[in-house]
Design brief:
Shape: elongated
Number of strands: 3
Oligomer: single chain
Radius of gyration: 16 Å
Distance between the termini: 46 Å
Strand order of the largest sheet: 1-2-3
Strand content: 15-25%
Order of helices and strands: EHEHE
Helix content: 10-25%
């Protein structure tokens, strides 16, 4: 038996369609200083429908964590 459902990297339209079939517990999407796309509609949709929003990679996949000291060490 399914009690809770969460989705990852989906649009606001998909959130609404899925939530109409079965209430969603959470939505996970990349959200950082580099990737602000959830601000377009996903955050508002989650708030309206009472769905938890889980930010994936809030420090830009480690690039903003202070660990990267030399960009020459990155693969092309």
């Amino acid at each position: 038996h399914v009690r809770t459902i969460g989705l990852s990297e989906v649009s606001a339209t998909t959130i609404r369609k899925a939530h109409a079939v079965h209430p969603l517990a959470a939505v996970q999407t990349e959200y950082s200083l580099w990737t602000r796309n959830p601000e377009i509609a996903v955050l508002q949709t989650c708030q309206e429908l009472g769905i938890a929003f889980v930010a994936f990679s809030p420090v830009a996949r480690g690039f903003l964590s202070g660990r990267l000291r030399d960009v020459q060490a990155l693969d092309a």
